[in-house]
């Protein structure tokens, strides 16, 4: 069992160890998810990925993130617009790191 791994999903990279909770971009999955795009495993650095390395995670919940407000304004023109956005996210619990 390995200590620390860096994997990528949804165009972002995450540093995890077994037992961590991670919020990632929305995944259409239930139950268990396996990530094979592992960039680093302990002291092994992949080129670009580490061969045979996997990060196994359990889907905890599907939800939406915090609201991000986008405010536009043009001075002296009486122009103001406010928009909100909530990104869909998946909460994962890292169960195992295989190397």
How would you describe this structure to a colleague?
The chain has one domain (5-98). The protein is built from no helices and ten strands. The protein has strands at 5-9, 12-16, 21-25, 32-35, 38-41, 44-45, 54-64, 68-74, 79-85, 88-98. Strands 2-1-5-6 form a four-stranded antiparallel beta sheet, with no helix packed on it. A four-stranded antiparallel beta sheet has the order 3-10-7-4, with no helix packed on it. The N and C termini lie close together (7 Å). 13% of the residues are buried. The model has no long low-confidence stretch (mean pLDDT 94).
Number of domains: 1
Q: pLDDT under 50 segments (min length 5)?
A: none
Please give the order of strands in the largest beta sheet: 2-1-5-6
Helix content percent band: under 10%
> What profile does the largest beta sheet have?
4 strands, antiparallel
> Can you write the helix and strand succession as a string?
EEEEEEEEEE
* Percentage of residues in DSSP E strands: over 45%
Backbone CA Rg: 18 Å
Shape: elongated
Number of strands: 10
Can you count the helices? Answer: 0
Instruction: Note the gap between the termini.
Output: 7 Å
Could you say which structural class the secondary elements and strand pairing correspond to?
Answer: mainly beta
Mean pLDDT: 94
Q: Care to give the gist of this entry?
A:
With 99 residues, the chain is mainly β. It is built from no helices and 10 strands.
């Amino acid at each position: 069992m390995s200590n620390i791994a860096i994997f990528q999903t949804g165009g972002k990279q995450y540093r995890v160890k077994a037992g961590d909770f991670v919020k990632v971009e929305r995944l259409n999955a239930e139950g268990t998810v396996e990530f094979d795009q592992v960039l680093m495993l302990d002291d092994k650095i992949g080129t670009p990925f580490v061969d045979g390395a996997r990060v196994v995670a359990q889907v905890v919940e599907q939800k939406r993130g915090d609201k991000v407000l986008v405010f536009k304004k043009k001075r002296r023109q009486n122009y103001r617009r406010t928009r909100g956005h909530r990104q869909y996210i998946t909460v994962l619990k890292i169960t195992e790191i295989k190397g």
